[in-house]
Amino acid sequence: MGNGDGTGFFTSVADTVDQLAATGYLASTAVATTVFLADRLGKPLLVEGPAGVGKTELAKAVAAIGQARLVRLQCYEGIDEARALYEWNHAKQLLRITAGRDENWDQARTDIFGEEFLLTRPLLTAIRGEEPTVLLIDEMDKADVEVEALLLEVLSDFQVTVPELGTITASRRPFVLLTSNATRELSEALRRRCLFLHLDYPEAELERRIVRQKVPGLDDTLAGSLVRVVGALRAMELRKAPSVAETIDWARTLLALGADTLDEAVVRDTLGVILKHQDDVRKAAQKLTLA
Amino acid sequence: MTGTGTGPDTGTGTGTGPDTGTGTGPATGTNTPADANAPADTAARLTGLVRALRGHGLRIGPAETVDAAAVLDVLGFVDREQVRAGLAAALLRSDGQRPVFDATFDLFFPLGVGVPEALRADPPALPDDPEPPRFGRPDPVREDLRERLAAALAADDRAAQARLAGEVVEAFGRYGAAAGPGSAPGSDGWSAHQALGRLAPETLLARVLAALRAGSTAPEDVSDLVLADEIRRRIRDFRALVTGEARRRVAELRGAERIAERAVAPTVDRIDFLAAGREQLAELRRTVHPLARKLATRLAARRRRAARGQIDLRRTLRRSLSTGGVPLRPAYRLRRPARPELVLLCDVSGSVAGFADFTMLLVQAMSEQFSRVRVFAFVNRTAEVTDLLNRGGTDPARLAARILAEAKVTGYHGNSDYGTALGEFAERHLDAVGPRTSVLILGDARNNHRDPNLDALRRIAGRARRVFWLNPERTALWPTGDSAAPAYAGVVEMHSCRNARRLGELIARLLPV
Known about the structure:
The complex is a heterodimer of chains A (about 290) and B (about 525). Chain A is about 50% helix and about 15% strand. With about 290 residues, chain A is α/β, with parallel strands linked by helices. Chain A has a five-stranded parallel beta sheet with strand order 2-5-8-1-9, sandwiched between helices. A two-stranded antiparallel sheet of chain A has the order 3-4. In chain B, about 50% of the residues lie in helices and about 5% in strands. Chain B is globular. Chain B is an alpha/beta fold and about 525 residues long. In chain B, the strands form two sheets. In chain B, strands 5-4-3-6-7-8 form a six-stranded mixed beta sheet, with helices on both faces. A two-stranded antiparallel sheet of chain B has the order 1-2. The chains are: A alpha/beta (about 290), B alpha/beta (about 525). The interface between A and B is large, with 55 and 51 residues.
């Protein structure tokens, strides 16, 4: 595994931090290091973590930095080869056959399995591109286990085999990022081919910087209090802990309401923005008034 | 051993232990670049780390080890946190493995050798106090450390806390020969427990709170209310720092391999139910929902496969008539999508309460996978606790206490009596069990030498679709003492289930879909 295999978007970990920050993505050391390694070693990056911590945003940021095309494969239950890899355009093939009635079978056969009749889906599109590409395979855990097997060839060798055409190898390796919410365990075979990054809720200081960046109008001390309360809520045993996206929503709400301190009344009125279950709201309200 | 590099002696620090002479490996400092003998040493360290992680049940193949080496090659040894993050990316496969990895990483890629670098370069000023400490008189070293720790905790200054952890272990953690002459070799070492006992960082809470509140301008601010919890978390993190530091010092005396094997806590899903403490049980509870989700998808996959069914020959032939007798479209025998019912019968007595607790919460979290879940608890009498459990979703921590307080699970005494409890269930609640019901019995079958009442269990097994008994004890312990496990195992299928990982496997495999 030499250095020539990588995508070459970054030069060092520090450079990764800077470039990500320039696109508006504030990354911790762990995130920057892993992204840098994925870039340098040319390995796919599997990002796992709770919803709303910026897994998909990370792919977008990397694409913006590399001025790369972002090819996105959104996984769902029941996704199959025809949706993920490629498909033959049957209607067009039939038209072709009816159009050339007097040619013999050999001619027709070689013709209808040509490039012209191939519909490329995200995985093949990402492999075939000449320009720099970021391939985002989103919510991998939503797809069925069979799809993972389909991905293995793409992820380890960056190639796709179409029986009628032969093997198509990437002329330029894409930066591959897979995300998962860990609703099911991905197979060992898939995990082995990837670098692994667990993206958790950020540390208080980093989260405060994120809030300040996304909601610039918010008062600095208020942002600090906000992040602190969210941190305390995450430490409680809640059904759904508030994510970074929800912290930012809350900050926007407070800004819109014109609140300048996080007093009890404000919190009680706006708790619904960050907590999505009635049980959680009740529990949090209790905690924040009695403690 | 850790120090295979034997360069010239650079251990010139103050108050170094007996072992510092050999300490000149490549990891003498936080930001020392790899020196001449690094390559061979690094490979040995890396494979040592991998071996230790495998010992903790992490599946790491040679391909991952090679990846990790490539990572080290790219990153170099400039920044230790980068190396940590990079190796984690190459070696780990799930978040639950992270605590084990961090502790093991600290042993194989230690922050330094002997006294922490920062202390050697800039030793803390010893208080000007000629008198030796004695009982009843405040120890100035301790007071000084507590003072600085309070400041570091208030400021949330991680670097200062790390340095203080080193100082605390150096000052208070030593025991045996390391502390002075006169004890047997091999009995010396460093103890985090001893150091933390002397320092008592928990008692700083009030001081830190007062310091922070004094600077705060808006007392009505809600974030003030959660401050105490936050300080408690910071103190807990500091305790972990001290524990790690002591482990590093011990590893220098005993070898990283041995310490990694014995002193690093296992991953949460491998904690023994019977040995788990309060903190560990709380940690286990946090894994209930993720585990339930994973099991649900596994069960759903099995259900899909099972629903595919076999070919229905009669309907296929009937259908083939419309295509001239050629069976183009096969018809499958469809299954009625009936979800199974589940009855859980749990021993909630003190000895196995942690196990019962976890399983009850897990089953409740998975309840949509079953058409009906009923939960019964017993110590020596049986009571239905399904409602208690459903209401308990808001406060899982107190579930066991509430069951003991509100449900009638004990009679005249507080000891387990499986015979009476099973008998009572067979007598009063047998209508909960039908031909679609799977029954899970949880308990160690320690019956205090009473009548096991096998007949009652036979009656339950006779009505149910399947009955499984999950026993949190090792199989080897079943035939010992007052356990009726062998007798019960003769009637129903009994499985040993000692940790969350095993429980997940059993539930995914045993339960019908």
